[in-house]
Amino acid sequence: MSIKHILQYFNLDEIDVIIVENIGNLVCPAEFNIGEDIRVAILSIPEGDDKVEKYPLMFSTSEILVLNKYDMKSYFDFDDKKVESVARELNPNINIFRVSNKQRRLK
């Protein structure tokens, strides 16, 4: 279902961005266009570095890949260089961001 059917319920003059979270597995969200302008895939480090190879459609159709919980990389056998390489083979224009959940104290 496209999000365009619910846009009538919003005052679009007051909204800059609408974020639609299409949760579930990495197969169904990739197979359907719901009217988005930008598709973001979020890959959490604890999920494993095999997801790009297992679900190539999701990563080949996303403009952005967020490697979430990057601060936990040292606790998991996660090869971010492999993930980046495979993602770029599928989609050379994908933007990749490494995001840490660890709060840093400012001095």
Provide a brief overview of the structure:
With 107 residues, this protein is of the alpha/beta class.
Order of helices and strands: HEHHEHE
Q: What's the structural domain tally?
A: 1
CATH topology type: Rossmann fold
Number of helices in the DSSP assignment: 4
Largest sheet: 3 strands, parallel
* Global mean pLDDT: 86
Family: Belongs to the SIMIBI class G3E GTPase family. HypB/HupM subfamily.
Keywords: GTP-binding, Hydrolase, Metal-binding, Nickel, Nucleotide-binding, Zinc
Pfam families: cobW
InterPro entries: CobW/HypB/UreG_nucleotide-bd (IPR003495), Hyd_mat_HypB (IPR004392), P-loop_NTPase (IPR027417)
Structure characterization notes:
Keywords: GTP-binding, Hydrolase, Metal-binding, Nickel, Nucleotide-binding, Zinc. One of its GO terms (biological process) is protein maturation. GO terms for molecular function: GTP binding; GTPase activity; nickel cation binding; zinc ion binding. With 107 residues, this protein is an alpha/beta fold. Strands 1-2-3 form a 3-stranded parallel sheet, covered by helices on one side. The chain has helices spanning 28-31, 51-54, 56-60, 80-90; strands spanning 40-44, 64-68, 95-98. The chain has one domain: Rossmann fold (3-Layer(aba) Sandwich), CATH 3.40.50.300. Helix 4 links the parallel strand 2 (64-68) and strand 3 (95-98). It is 22% helix and 13% strand. The mean pLDDT is 86. The longest helix has 11 residues, at 80-90.
